[in-house]
Amino acid sequence: MSHKERRLRLNGRDIQHLAALAGEWLLRGATAKDLREALTDGLPARVHSPAALAHNRLTRKMPEPPPFTAPVTAPQPLRTCAGTCDRVFRPVADETKCRDCRQDEAQAAHAQNRSLSHGQGPLQARWA
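^ thats the sequence. predicted structure below, dont judge the formating
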């Protein structure tokens, strides 16, 4: 900001204090352009305290919070794992096994595919 508008030169400590306010603007859906306009539009010819002016403008011109919107989908109900562990878990989609059982199953399948790809049939892989 201070590169384009010399009247708003801020030091590192000032920037740290104002960062939370700027972050709140962004959380409320404002863009960098919105922030820049709020800070620079209609600046007086002489600014005595750039940090105080920026704090005042960021506070006074803060956009309204976005309206609350309910989650689009409700979370899946808890489910008992169909694998070997019988854990209770909350599936993201239509999983029937918990993460650990799916991971164990994938590792076993990978190991089997690896042994088969090295020219060993199922019987040779067992005796190797």
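The radius of gyration is 29 Å.
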